[in-house]
Write a structure and sequence with these properties.
113 residues, 6-stranded antiparallel beta sheet, 3-stranded antiparallel beta sheet
């Protein structure tokens, strides 16, 4: 992954990350959606938010605490979760964590920056 170009991840849906900053890389984009590679250091979390697309998270490394519509779960490598369109959710890195996040349909505005 050393040759990949990472960008700072400071906001999710226009809201600032909590506890620090993450990083992301756009993996692929199509008319129907996109895929990001995302990394949060331990202690970084997204604020509660919702969006105009569905997201599927697939954990590659580390441990995440996810809350979707008030239901909490712990995600480890090989686990996945769905963040349905319009449903409040958030993610916190319990350890340094990396995941692939698929978004469909294509978001109307950049969801992370």
């Amino acid at each position: 992954m050393d040759e990949q170009v990472w960008q700072p991840l400071l906001t999710v849906e226009g809201l600032p990350l909590q506890g620090g900053e993450g990083r992301f890389r756009l993996l692929e984009s199509a008319d129907s959606g996109l895929a990001y590679l995302i990394h949060y250091p331990a202690g970084v979390s997204s604020p509660a938010h919702s969006h105009d697309h569905d997201s599927i998270v697939y954990v590659l490394s580390g441990r995440l605490r996810g809350v979707v519509d008030g239901v909490e779960s712990i995600l480890e490598p090989g686990d996945s979760a769905v963040h349905p369109r319009g449903v409040p959710h958030q993610v916190e890195a319990l350890t340094d964590a990396m995941w692939v996040e698929f978004k469909s349909p294509l978001p109307t505005r950049p969801p992370i920056a």
